[in-house]
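User: Predict the full complex structure for these chains.
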Amino acid sequence: MSHRSEPLALRLSLGLIRAFRKVVPAVIRDEWVREWEAEIRHRWSTVNQRHAVNWRDRADLVRRSTGAMADAAWLRQQFTFDRDIMRDVRYALRMLHRQPALSALAVLVLSLGIGGTVAVFSVIDTLLLRDLPYQDANRIATVWLTNREHPEEREGVAPGVFLDWRTRSTAFETIAAEDPFSFDYLEGPVPTTLIGGLVTEGFFEALGVKPMLGRTFLREEHIEGKSSVAIISYGTWQRLFGGRSSIVGEKVAFESRTYEIVGVLPRWFHPDMQHMVREEEIWAPKVLQKFEYDNRRTRYWTVVARLAPGVDLRQARVELSTISSQLARTFPNTLTNMTATLVPFRDHLAGPIREPLRVVFGAVVLVLLLGCANVASLLLARAADRQREFALRAAIGASAWRMIRQTLVESVVLSTLSCLAGLTVAHAAISGLVAVGSSTVPQLGELALDGRLMTFALGASILTAILVGLWPAIRLSKRATRDELAQSGAGTTGGRDRRRFVSTLVVSEVALALVLLVSAGLLIRSFNTLASVDPGFSEANVAVLQVFPYGPRYRTDAQRQVFFDQALDRIRAVAGVERAGLVSAMPFGAANINIEGGFKVEGRPELPEADRPSAFLTVATADYFRAMDIQLKHGRVFNDDDRMNGTLVGLINDKIAERFWPGESPIDQRISVNWLGRWRTLQVVGVVGRLRHEALDRDARAEVFMPLSQTPFGSMTFVVRTRGDAAALIPSLRSRIWEVDGNLPIYDAATVSALVAHTLAARRFVTNLLSVLAGLAFLLATLGIYGMLVFSTTQRTREIGIRMAVGGKAGDILALVLGESARLISIGLVVGLLGSMAAARLLAALLYSTSPTDPLTLAATTILLAAVALLACYVPARRATRIDPLTALQT
Amino acid sequence: MRTTYSTALVLEALAHGYHYGFDVMDATNLPSGTVYPILRRLEREGMVTSQWEADGVAQNEQRPPRRYYELTADGRRALADTTDRYRAPRGARALRPARHSRG
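Assistant: Here is the predicted structure of the two-chain assembly.
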């Protein structure tokens, strides 16, 4: 385009562009030149058209063309950066592709770590972090009556105590109680019992929930005669009423009484106040009865409170503690040592999973770290292959950053792939958690892989990439810029830095794996100890069905007795039934009827009121003891002679016997018990073994049994021992009961082993989860140690070759390599043991009669890990002894 | 995006109908060594697109086709943000109405 004839200024400008073009990256060079030339020529011609070109115009054109240098330089720099990153990515992908097995392993390891972390984080997020839908949820707390000596054993609250709290406390905006209650719904295909609660004023306000349809209760509805209104849960609305929106205002019969449905609660509302096997499904207003004001003994209400604005949990605790002390002084026989425990609502909801969750999260993070260590070692091994390349590049001026970047890009590529795989793992794990966990913690049903978790996963992967890549990267580049070029490629002695790095990795892998193994070991031991606790009965092949025969068809004790007799007769006639009895307080039962009453031994001096013993009072028939296989230690169980008009008799358990008649027989002794407010004297006819009721880790109670024939009672559970699988017989047992009364709901039908298992579910869950993680850690550590040793012996091929050339024997070499490994493994084990001690503090709360420093567990896991780790070293060590000195020295 | 005062001026010029590198320099009083890297960066970031002028127009004027720059929707948004930050920029006030129509 340029011609000699063109003016100097134009020629000069175009010349500058041509001079600068070399700077511009080749792919866009021609375009760049075209653009600049076009601008310059256009400018020249427009100026020419307008007026005679003067020196200013010329100078301006040249000045502008000079600026092209800045443009060219900018493009060059950008392009170089892009190209380098792209080259790093391509290089990383090529490296991954070249060693597919190793790469797959690295991705697998990281994806398990990332996926596991994400899944566990999702549980933590749902239970502990996410905003609860309850309004101002951090101001809500549940309140429990607890013994100052055993604050972890939360009991319900006696009505009178709740009323005292309500009157005396100022820390709460609202404090309300739920009185457990059940509603029999007979309109459906089979009679059903809805679990429910009668709630005092302000219950829903305390919980900060507004119904999705209708309203909550009015103040005047807590008055006798106005209280036939009810609010139902979302589930009940869907199940029983097909989700029709006209339900509000409808009148629904619950057995003999008709309630108007005034509200439907939102779907997320699961207060789980009673922490029972089943959740509440319906609520009605509580009308306070006169006797309830004075009942400070029977602890069966659950209480929820909303803190007043500006009051924190600690202040509320102090106030309730003070009130409790005052109450204990006024009512020493019932409330001595009793205090109130406030549980933040979030913790209440998370229930038994809360503590274990932290442990599991810790474990997952350890596995992730272990995964990182493994992958870091993998990258290091790879990078070592490129050491000469790095060194060369450093020598010709590549910056340290440039080399760090390349290694980092590789780890980013690796962790991005792992993140994708990890999300799949997380998805599977979360489905598993929902399936297993939601029966224990209702809220877990809401787990899902959402945007928050994706973000978390991404964060975890980036962090992983840095953890995995940065260390090897920095170490490599440091060495590369220093001395590596002076050494030969395979390394004479492997370089002190690299060996230190390998050592650190081996030590930390052993340590991390040991911490996890010890923790899992302790949990397994604790779980086995707990699961093998003798509950006092044999749980296999026993079915239980609970009924509450009250209402118009059961006005008298005689009517109820007829029902029980007929139902028992029919149940016993079912093929496969061995024994069938009745009991009021069924151990591990869904609705435990716990009646605690005062207890006196006749002929012994009366103790001061505060020390007066109490016992749990249970009504039963003789076959209950046989069906449950409860040990009869002395005397007899009930028999047909124990009639209403005969001598009142009772059985005591060995806990009472040991306390009051140590070393002598209590048979024919007389005791008095306070049965529902009235003292009655019983003649002891037998002693039975003690039973655990709430859970295997709770102590057995002092229990007195009275025969149903002498103690008419309605809330009873059929206890049926079967010859085969009890669960299979439940449907026919149900229908036998319904043959006698087709309108009687069966509150809960289950096998005893399922009931016991339910109390262990949370522990089993955590133990299994941690065992899987520990297994994974074990595998990772073994692979990691093996990989490291293979790497470091390969690096020392020359050295070993020299040793053998100067007469070293295979045994010496083996001892050398193994000895060094053993030293590293020992250090790892010591560090791991120290770590386990620290971790055990976290674990202590989860362990049942197992010491966090249980010597057997510590020894067994340490030996196991040491043995396997040494084995992992043996293979590469053996290989080292077969090195041919000639070949080794040639490389 | 990092929006410097110069970037704001370039955006402003593009919005006012200055579509070629040298014209943007005229409108903003910025040197070429500043304007071009800004245009490149804006294009990289999707604030600006560019294309070659139609051959016919250039041939009529007996010169090679020029490169035509245009704001994208993102660029207009970025401009709106920056106008808030740099109220009435000095250069923008001096902008003349565009003379060049798109080729």
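Residues 88-103 of chain B have pLDDT under 50 and may be disordered.
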